[in-house]
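Record pair follows.
FIRST:
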Amino acid sequence: MRNRIHIWLILGISVLSLTSAAAAQDEQWLQYHSAREAEQILGATRSRVLELSAEKPAGVQLPQFEGQNQLFAKWSTPMVKNGYLWILLDRTHQYGLYDSLYIDSNADGHLNDETPVAAYRMEQYNAYFGPVKVVFEVEDGPATYHLNFRLYGYDDNRKLYASSGGWYGGSITVEGQKKHCVLIDHNANGTFDDKSLDAQECDRIRIGKKDAQDTRCAGNYVEVDGVLYRPEIARDGAYIKLTKAEDVKLGNIRLPESITEFSVAGENGLFILKPENGVASLPVGRYRINDWGIERKDEKGSSWKLQGSGFSEKGEFDIAQDRDTELSMGEPVICRLDASERDSTHSFSQELSGRRGERIELTRNGAQPLAPKLRIRNKDATYDRTFSFQYG
C-alpha cells in the first residue's frame, strides 16, 4: 500500500530514492497535497461544469434529507468502475443556496453512508465546498484525491463547478541534479497522466526550481535543461519515471521570419520554440498551435508585441519525418471595428484576430497601449474635433 501524506496548504518535499546515471530511471515517488484555493498555488486549472438534476437517481441509497428539493450530479472519472461518482446537494434551511454536499467518496454507488460536507464560504450567489475527499482503489492500495466545488445559483439558473483540489509534488533527481517536480490534474477527472491534442484536456507537469512556474502539458516528451525525456507518470500521480529520449524522429516547421516566439502542444507535450531564420524542429506527431509572438521596437525605443493565442482546430498541423511543414501565421492581422448608436451616444468596439481565427493582443512595453483617438473633420473644416476613446 502506498504511503500517501495529506498536507494542508503547505508544499512538502518527499524523500526519494536516488537514481542511477542510466538513461532509464527508477520510479521517483512524490507527496500528495491538497488545498481549498489550489489554483492560487498551481495556477489556473480547468473547472468542469456538472449537470444538475432534481430527479433522484434510481438504485442509489440516499441519506435522510434536512431540506427540500435536493439536486444531484455526476462527476466523471476513469478511476472508478462505473466511470462516475454521485454528488448530492442539500440545504439546512428551506430557501436560498444549497449549503451541504454529499459525494460517493468510497465509490460504492450509494450516498447514505456519506457524511455531508458543509460549505466553507457562502456568498449571495455562490457556495464553496472543499477540499472534498474521495478514495480510489488502485493496484497497490487506496489513493486519496480531493475536489473543490463552487455552486452558483440565481433563481432557476444553477451550475456546479468542479476543479482539482489535490496535486503531487516533491524532489526528484535528473542526471544527478535535484529538481522539484509537480504533477497537476488540470482537467479535474482524477488522473494525472492525460495527454490530448486539446490543451484543456491535458494534465500538467513542472520540473525545475521549487518556486518555478514553468508549467508544461503532460505528454510523450518533457524537456529538462535542454534535454528531451520520455516521462512515465502514474495514473494516480504518485510517481514519475524519466527516460532520456533517444532516436527521436524529427521534422522541420517553417514560419514567417518575423515570428520571434512560438509554442505548440499535443500528445507529445508542450514545446516552446525559438525559430532560427523561421525554421524549428519538432518530434513527429500532430500538434495545435498554442501561441506566437512578434516583437519590435519603434523609433523611440518602445517595445511593441503582437501575440496570438486561443487557436481552434484551424491551428492543428502534422509533423512528418524529414519533411518541412510550412505554417502561415502572424502578420497581417485583421482589425474589426463595430460602431453602434444609442440615445445620441456612439459606441465602438475594436477586435484584433489572426489569420487562423486566433485572438490577438497588442502591448507596448508589456502593457496595453493608450486607447486610440478619433478625429472627425468635415469637408470645409468648419467641424474639426478629436475625441479620445476609453477602454471599458
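SECOND:
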Amino acid sequence: MQGGDIYQKILPLEELSKLTQSFKEKGDIIVHCHGVFDLLHPGHIRHFDAAKRKGNVLVVTITKDKYVRKGVGRPVFNEQLRAESIAALQSVDYVAINEWPTAVETIKMIKPDVYVKGSDYTNRESDLTGKIYEEEEAIKSVGGRIHFTDEISFSSTKLLNEHFNIYPKETKEFLRDLCSRYAAENVIKKLKELEKIKVMLVGDTIIDEYHYCKAIGKSNKDTNIVARYMNEELFAGGILAAANHLAGFCKDVQLVTCLGREKNIEEFIRTHLKSNIHVKFFYREDSPTVVKRRFVEPDFLTKMFEINFLNDSDLPKETSQEVCAYLEELVPKYDLIIVGDYGHGFIDENIRNVLCEEAEFLAVNTQTNSANIGFNLITKYPKADYICIDEPEIRFATHDKLSSIETLIEKISNVLQCSFITVTLGHRGSIFYHKGNGYFKTPVFSHEVVDRVGAGDAFLSVTSPCVRMGFPPELVGFIGNAVGALAVQIVCNRSSIDPPQLYKFVKTLLT
C-alpha cells in the first residue's frame, strides 16, 4: 500500500502477521524496521527509504509507551501519535504497535525476510540492552537476515532535549555543563566497573504490602470513610530492595538481615531476591518479620492508612551476639559495607560498633519513619565513611530547623569525621559533600512521581559503590539523581533499577 489513508496502514499485530504471510505467499519480500521513533526526523526517513529498497513491503513496529526505557519524560509523543507519523510516510506500507519490550517475539510473528537496523547498531557492543543479539537470532530462526543501513544520522534524544523543554532551565544548564566534561559512554564504562566490588548489606527486612481499596463513602453512623477492597500486592522492601538494586551492578553481594520466627515470610523473600545475592538470615523468637501494610487508592496511589507489624526493641542478647560474631569474621573481607538502618530493632549498639570498627568502607542511611521519628539518627555511626540521608533526617540529627543544608552537612562531617555526605532534597534535587572539594548540587531529573517509597534505598544502593570507587563528586550526584528519577516511576519496590535502564537514561541525559 503506497500512500493511502494513514489509519488504514496502522494494524494490530495479529492482523499484520496474517497480511505479511499472504504477501510472502505471492513472492513479496517483507522488510521490517523496529524502534521507538519518538521524534521523526530526516535520519528516520532516509532509514525507512533505504529499508524499503531491500524488499517490496515495509512494515514498521514501534515500542509501546510503557516499554520505552529512555528515562523520565519519554516518550514525548505517545504510541498512537508515533504510529500515525510513521504511517504518513510514503515508503512505509504498514505500522503496528509492539506488544513486547523488544522486537524478538514480533519478528517471530511477522517472519520478515529482512530485519533492518540503523548504522549505530553495526557495533553490537554499543547496544546498551544487548537485545540486538536476540533480535539477530530471531530473524535467523525464521529464515531471514539482518541488514544495517548507512544513512545520515540524527539524534531524537538530542533534538528533544534541546528544543522541547523536557527539563527546566536549571537542569538543562547543569546537563549542558556536565556534557562538556563527561561523555555518556565514559560514565557508563565507570558504572560497569562497579561489578568488581565485593559488597555486604546489613539492615532491616521490610515487607511492604499494598492493599488497594476504593473509597465508597462515609459511614452512616460514624466519622470513618468506608472503602471497598480490590486486591493486594507484596513487595520485598527495606534492605531487601537495596540489595536487589545493588545486585544488578555488583556481582558479589552478601545480605545480612533478621526475620521473625512468627510469620517470617521467608519463602516469599527468597524468591524475590536476585540470584547473585547470598543471604544470611538471623531469627528472633519474639517478633514477626516486619510488615508495613498500606491501604492504597489505586488510581493515584494515595496512601489512606498504614498498619505496622513489628517489634522495634533491641535484639535478644543471644541473637545479637550471634550477629556480631558473624560480622566480625566476614565484614573485613568486603570492600564496602552498606547499612540500611530503618530503626526497627535489628541493628543494636553492639552490631553498630562491629560495623564501625571492622568495615573497610562504611556507607550508612538511618531512615526516619513514622515508627522512629526523632530517635533513629545518623549520629549513632561515628565512623561512617559515606552518609546518605534526606533533609529531615539531617535536621533531626543536628537539632537544627532553619540553618542551610551546607551548614548542617559541615556540622555532621565534623562530629562524625565523615568525608562523604549526600543529602537528598526531594523536588530540589540533592547535594553531595566531598571533604576537601566542597559541595556539588544536582537538580532533579524527574517530572512526575508515581511512588516515592523505595527511592531513597535505590539512591543509597547505587551511589555507595560509586563513592567507594572514587567517582568524581559531580558524577555521584548525577548518577544518584538519575537513579532516583527512575525509582519514583516504580510502584513501591515492584522492580529494581537494572543497569541497562540506567545506562539508557544516562545516555539520554548526556546527549
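COMMENT: Residues 158 and 511 are 5 Å apart (CA to CA).
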